[in-house]
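User: My advisor, Dr. K., asked me to get a structural model of this assembly before our group meeting. I'm new to this, so sorry if the format is off. These are the inputs:
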Amino acid sequence: MADHDERDVLAAGLSGALTPFGHRLMARVYYADTDFSGVVYHARYLEFFERGRSDFLRLAGVHHTELHDGKHGEKIVWVVRRMEIDFRGSARIDDVLTIDTRTDDISGARIYMAQQLKRGDEVLVEARVEAAIVGENGRPRRFPKEWIAAFMPGRCDRARSSRIGSCDNR
Amino acid sequence: MADHDERDVLAAGLSGALTPFGHRLMARVYYADTDFSGVVYHARYLEFFERGRSDFLRLAGVHHTELHDGKHGEKIVWVVRRMEIDFRGSARIDDVLTIDTRTDDISGARIYMAQQLKRGDEVLVEARVEAAIVGENGRPRRFPKEWIAAFMPGRCDRARSSRIGSCDNR
Amino acid sequence: MADHDERDVLAAGLSGALTPFGHRLMARVYYADTDFSGVVYHARYLEFFERGRSDFLRLAGVHHTELHDGKHGEKIVWVVRRMEIDFRGSARIDDVLTIDTRTDDISGARIYMAQQLKRGDEVLVEARVEAAIVGENGRPRRFPKEWIAAFMPGRCDRARSSRIGSCDNR
Amino acid sequence: MADHDERDVLAAGLSGALTPFGHRLMARVYYADTDFSGVVYHARYLEFFERGRSDFLRLAGVHHTELHDGKHGEKIVWVVRRMEIDFRGSARIDDVLTIDTRTDDISGARIYMAQQLKRGDEVLVEARVEAAIVGENGRPRRFPKEWIAAFMPGRCDRARSSRIGSCDNR
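Assistant: The format is fine. Below is the predicted structure of the whole assembly, which you can bring to the meeting.
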């Protein structure tokens, strides 16, 4: 196998994929994720969810490095404001997990996402996440219009069909 | 300073202290807790909260090792079922944090705890935690009556004063 | 895209790939891996290395769950005995890393592995790892002969060509 | 107990203590530190070691925040360059650990530290750490002379007694 092809295969699923509902990522459970009770440590599920949100952003064209480097006018970071997490089942070492992320709503300076962590079809953990972007002074920033189109394609489809038209620049 | 005394001072606050409302622990923010945005990574707050709950248990006389070794009849582990977390502010490297934990309710096989992570008097993160204890088969177990007295002293005081008397074995 | 195909792509590189030298895995840097200095926290590189070793094992046919469930006679876990780590450069948020793992030697109850973490062709971190497998009593166990063939294919090739023949069961 | 006194007790051992050999810190093992094999995850020992080094710095008068805020002329961060770690034994949930840190040598822009993690008198993990301080451009910076006195008191004692006198500003 040529080096280039090999790299392609190895990196194929690295950022997950955009889906009709939002974004899907697959990830493995390693030693580092587990605790002595035998299953994944509860706070580590939040890291899997962060990966899902970060890769959703990435595939939607938003990069942490660019945000951080001020490509959007000033240094911007994402901040999680609130999470509701239901731990329904437990993931174990060697498990392959699916992390599904969708945007429920974007309202001014807040984005509301729903995430599911599954093993096969079994939902193990569910999270509702309220996040924001903040500038260097810690003040929240409004989401650029093109991000709304990127994170909530459905809203724009609906908006267009009802001629509300706030997603024209899609 | 004699070795014994030194150890006493170094270990003085290690498990925090029982308080009228429940339990208080102090902890430091290190490199490991932070992320590149400059503040504590959101999932690491859950580790601080776990420390608070674990030490509350410890001072109330409940040890993970004993639970795990089956001292209570079978191997028992704590499981977090649900968390609601409000991230109001950000902790930074070198910060000294206070983690306050109290029990809001115990109902059959569920315990409801409220936790605050503060820097000085400023509340940075608040969490509501629903936890359970499960046996080896993964089935929830009822909380022993003496634990209710240990985790919710207030309830027993109220119970006694109204002669309901379900906390007599305190 | 059919669901089955999509899953194949998403999971394609999940366990990395066996290579002539051993094993290669690619992984992404997320918020959780970084610290406030702006780059990956030094201890998190060890998690990337663990993923590399775990997936090398996996593709070589050795599963943590099976080891843990006693498929090999008793409950077995991997233990890292010694690490030498050179931190030459720093990985950053959003970086795609390559983790290369090879076995340098297997001797009785010890396995010696060399690992490199790279961004593109630049070696950021190098590690030499001495590991062992231990049984339930904590006592080291000898590596099964078929594992030697799986982890050190080169040695068996050399052994066969020189008719030493300790790798016949490959 | 008055609030002020309580805070004193809770925070008493928080930063450990300077010792004749360097620095000692005590810390507890929580769920978050363990993995499914039942003991502390190997990479988490590095977090305990970082706490020891950070608090040694703190008590020696060097604060990450001040370094980061450019109090010393430019933004400075600590970087670990190399670690050799021997994992001799395993720490378990609820264990109280002692982390001993001493400076072996300071040479230009490098500091060499030796660390031990113990449970009671039993040494579980030993580490040799080579670290450096780097400025904003990533270039190593020489250690200020007063830091040498702070981190290697012994060297200055020896220096003074032999009238070499490079530690006069202590």
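One thing worth pointing out at the meeting: The helical segments of chain D are 3-11, 42-59, 64-68, 145-151, 153-161.

User: Perfect, thanks a lot.
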